[in-house]
Amino acid sequence: MANKTKSSKRKTEVPGSTVFLFDGTGHGTRLTLDELDQADTSAPGAFTWVHLNRMNEKALQWLRKCGIDLHVFEALTAAETRPRCTLHEDGVLLNLRGININPGEEPEDMIDIRLWIEDSDVISLGWRPLAAVRDLIEAIKAERAPTSPGDLVSRLALRLADRIDPTVLELNEQIDDIEEQVLDDIDEVSRPLLADVRRTAIVLRRYMFPQRDALSTLEIEDIEWLSLRDRSRIREAAERMMRLGEELDAIRDRAQVVHDQVMDNRAERMNRQMLVLSVVAALFLPLSLLTGLLGINVGGMPGLNDHWAFAVVCGILVVMGLFEIWLFRKIGLF
Q1: Which of 95, 132, 179, 235 is the 20 to 30 Å CA partner of 86?
Q2: pTM to 2 decimals?
């Protein structure tokens, strides 16, 4: 890629670009795009990595001028992508996703990174800051730079998986706490939290299995610049994605079971309350009927002129109430 841009006479300033020249022995030198145009990449094992912001128009202009295929350019700058791996001529087009741990952002709003990989050049495009890329740059600064394009890609894939692990662990802990609350029959189970856990697991899972498939495809393809060690690490990253996807499946299913249990508990409490109201209504219905009959204002009411009539009516009501209580208990209403 560097030799393709040597013909450019005008200096190229691209804000936010990250450019490294690696010597293949674990040392990387940070350059600008102008310096990359003049860099010597003919040494054995040397290769370059250019990371650009795909929302920056100057970055897209430089990308058009660097000589990559139109199909690759369109794939790298597409509005929406899913994880995939596609071989194109002598290179590999690889789209991956990483967890979003930027302040104020939602983890499930995963960040994409698109890569075009050749035997001596790696071009990657992103939009928002990605923790895995920062980790890779920090390793390069600490003199632990990748030794080949395959090593760079395998490290990036492993860091993407490593960064997802804490979020999945946190989701597991949250669903554990909610399950304990349900088992302890605590009424204050946070239904919004439960819904958020389930939604996060579903959204994250959408990318785990396609990313596993993309890495598996890369690992099995006949690519010269992938060593056995690189393939082993890419296989490990794919297996981690598989494990994370299965854990997210389990979290989603557990969240659904907990939701069903919460709804069952709520329905049971409502049924108990309705039963109490029904028993009270059934208890007072005959008593209300009797007192209603005695309260009508017509002639011929018994005991109208007797001072003991009220006491007799109260006694009858007590006897009827006790009889109803005995009857309800006998038939098992309470």
Answers
A1: 132
A2: 0.76
